[in-house]
Amino acid sequence: MVPNNKLLYLKDFQKALKNYVPSIDVIDLLNQVQVVFLVAPAASGRNTIIRNMIMTGRYYYLISDTTRKPRINNGVPERDGEEYWFKSEQEFIGGLKRGEYIESAIIHEQQVSGISISELRTALAKNLIAMTDIDIQGCDFLQDYARDAHNIFVLPPDFDEWMRRMDGRGAMDPGEKKRRLQSAVSEISSALKRPYFKFLVNWDLRSTSEQLHEEILRGEFDDERQTEARHHAVELLARLDSEL
Question: What is the pLDDT of residues 76-115, one digit of tens each?
Fold first, then answer.
């Protein structure tokens, strides 16, 4: 038995990811498929935006591979190809050695997750815009390989509404809420330092989704709106600083 569900092949994963480079096939596909990466702090509504975009029939959600076992959520077991593609550690390591992943990461030394080339192939075959959630480190890594990708940082609305949404997710330990807000400070601050990010304020699901779709199709983002969104990010940081 591995303590705390620690990865059996942790050292192998660390070695494979240390200087990981996607294969030529992956890089080629990243330049053939229009890709949208969404980054966001907790309770910003990123996943809801993604679901709304997928429902239009114009987008394809890139499902990650993971080494963890399927869970049961509210009595319903996770299914392969819905929440994740569930892989054994050996299968995942083999894919990494062949460069078959867009990007990948070890999570708390307990699981590895990443998006494989097969998902890009599916998006291309369906002639759909590929979309997925990702973190800032993943976006940083992909700057050398997916230069035409849209890197979107989703911001919550005004602070009070943001807290209402966060609290609406159910009872949360005060310590956990503080940790999430501290993470939000780090994420927003980091995004503001990266010129490749476009900011999207999630005021209203419908209008936000429509705005994002229009800008993706145009291939450009309104400069005035971006200035306002960055100012909004700075204001959120100031409020977070006062609250923490």
Answer: 999 999 999 999 999 999 999 999 999 999 999 999 999 9
CATH superfamily of 63-127: Guanylate Kinase phosphate binding domain (3.30.63.10)
Strand partners, 122: none
Task: Specify whether the CB–CB gap between 131 and 62 falls below 8 A.
Answer: yes
Residue 114 contacts residue 26 (beta carbons within 8 Å): no
pLDDT single digits (tens) 122-181:
999 999 999 999 999 999 999 999 989 999 999 999 999 999 989 887 667 889 999 999
Q: What is the rounded distance in angstroms from the CA atom of residue 111 to the CA atom of residue 6?
A: 8
pLDDT category at 4 given cuts 50, 70, 90 is low
Q: Which residue has 């980054």 as its token pair? A: 39
Do β-strands 129-133 and 85-86 pair in parallel, antiparallel, or remain unpaired? unpaired
Q: Are 206 and 214 in contact (CB under 8 A)?
A: no
CATH class as words, domain 31-58+128-244: alpha beta
User: Using CB atoms within 10 A of its CB, is residue 177 exposed (0-12), middle (13-18) or buried (19+)?
Assistant: middle
Between strands 197-201 and 85-86, the pairing is unpaired
State the Cα–Cα distance between residues 127 and 123, nearest whole angstrom: 6
Compute the 3-state secondary structure of the chain and give helix, strand, coil in percent, each to the nearest 5. Answer: 50, 20, 30
Same fold, 31-58+128-244 and 63-127: no
DSSP 70-99: P-EETTEE--BTTTBEE--HHHHHHHHHTT
